[in-house]
Specification:
254 residues, alpha/beta, TIM Barrel, 8-stranded parallel sheet
Length: 254
């Protein structure tokens, strides 16, 4: 069986040249891309892109920064939940969801963040879907909240928080997706080193920039090679293992 690479966390709706992004990814063996929504307006766009491109799969949810970016998000929340329910057969995960106390400094916004997060977790539980999680600066609250919900699988995207919660996530069997920041970030390298190979995934988080370069799904090939070196695992074997991991957490994309 031919092995494939999968980008499990990409904001593909934010690129201007989606066809080119997908082609460049396929050229290096990245055959599937999980398109992760963040805002009220991105939900429909992500679904549309997934309908138009067989390589793309929709993950819908509300990013914790949306409480700062969109003053109407509280009023829009129920309509987003209805949209996700309506399209449940075309959604592979709930995300990007979570909490953020790092980029969002206004503590008055935290209760709304948590309300949205809990409603998204409840939806993931109801639809029996995995979640793509953002935890920046709010790791304790996120990890305290998760056991209250029965969710098939949990992916912590781009984790760079305290080692205490990294170890807790490892103990609970969470998955961790690694970004191109592995090339320069000690925190990301630590995650790749400490998490067993059975719980690692690959992501671009594009179009976030890495050392000035726009992140794209094709970069997950280099992420794989970096993990291979750090963990001293043959890259071919690691690629096979990470594909198996991805099949486990996101079964509907295969």
């Amino acid at each position: 069986m031919v092995q494939i690479l999968i980008d499990v966390h990409c904001h593909i709706n934010l690129y201007l040249t989606i066809d080119k992004i997908i082609k460049n990814a396929r050229d290096v063996g990245v055959e599937k891309i999980v398109a992760v929504a963040m805002s009220f307006i991105s939900q429909e766009r992500v679904l549309e892109i997934a309908r138009q491109h067989k390589e793309v799969y929709a993950s819908l949810g509300i990013h914790p920064e949306e409480v700062k970016m969109n003053e109407k998000i509280e009023q829009q929340l129920d309509s987003i939940i209805r949209l996700i329910r309506k399209n449940k057969n075309n959604v592979c995960a709930i995300g990007e969801i979570g909490l953020d106390h790092y980029f969002i400094k206004d503590k008055e916004l935290y209760p709304l963040q948590k309300t949205i997060f809990e409603k998204m977790l409840l939806l993931a539980q109801e639809l029996e879907l995995p979640v793509n999680l953002h935890t920046k600066g709010a790791e304790k609250t996120v990890f305290d909240t998760l056991p209250s919900y029965s969710i098939p699988n949990i992916n912590i995207h781009w984790y760079s928080g305290p080692e205490k919660f990294l170890n807790l996530g490892i103990d609970r069997g969470y998955f961790f997706s690694i970004t191109p920041a592995i090339s320069y970030s000690p925190a990301v390298k630590k995650v790749a080193l400490n998490v067993d190979k059975e719980h690692l995934l690959l992501e671009s988080d594009g179009p976030v920039k890495y050392s000035g370069s726009v992140g794209v799904p094709a970069m997950v090939k280099n992420v794989l090679n970096s993990i291979s070196k750090i963990k001293e695992i043959n890259s071919h074997d690691l690629e096979r293992q990470i594909e198996q991991n991805t099949r486990k957490i996101f079964p509907s994309i295969f």
